[in-house]
Amino acid sequence: MTAPTAYRKIYDPAQAAHYSVAKEAARATHRGEVALAARALRDVPRHETLLDLPCGAGRMTVELARLGFTALVAADVSPAMLELAQARLRAAGLAVPLTLADAERLPFPDQAFDNVFCFRLFHHFPDDRLRRQVAHELCRVARRRVVVSYLDRRAFTARKRQLQSWWRPRKASKFTQSPDEMASFFRDCGFAPVADLARLPYWHSLRILVADRT
Ligand SMILES: C[S@@+](CC[C@H](N)C(=O)[O-])C[C@H]1O[C@@H](n2cnc3c(N)ncnc32)[C@H](O)[C@@H]1O
To answer: Domain span at residue 165?
Structure first.
């Protein structure tokens, strides 16, 4: 078997700062994403451990703390992103442990966390072998539940992106799935889907799959 294609978009300090500012500026998008995450995590007990991977600049980590999660751990493959996350958490008066971690090979023991939250990573993976490898790692370290975002290829915004790429070709950086494909990656790791939520059904491609260990 050939090794999975690696995806590591390790932001340097300038890219990390740009991402952080751009995401902060898009307030409506941020609010929509937080609302979607809140729905997906609605029935997760707030005292249970929750891994936020990738945490990026800590944008969602702060929101998870605001949602009441008290046993958070945040991780990312980019040291520059972790530095920004550290500063953001400190400014918010939060003490969340931060770890350098590659989703393809997580530095945590099996079932180290009750729940794993993986937001805005999966759609960057260019092939199924990599998707399966990361799904396997997320499920390996989750004792109970995984909550994973992806982009739904049936949605209007995904179709629009595809059409635009026909007349303005450029290297693809976002890859889409169907809900069935997404569920199958996690079923194969012993996790059964319990919910699949859309930010704006059939309009916006962002969705979150919630799956529990069987
Ligand atoms: C689009 S940002 C999302 C961050 C955060 N979840 C958010 O919504 O603001 C993607 C993040 O994935 C991280 N990343 C990319 N490849 C990774 C990998 N293989 N393992 C862990 N993190 C990775 C990047 O460093 C970046 O911080």
So the answer is: 13-213
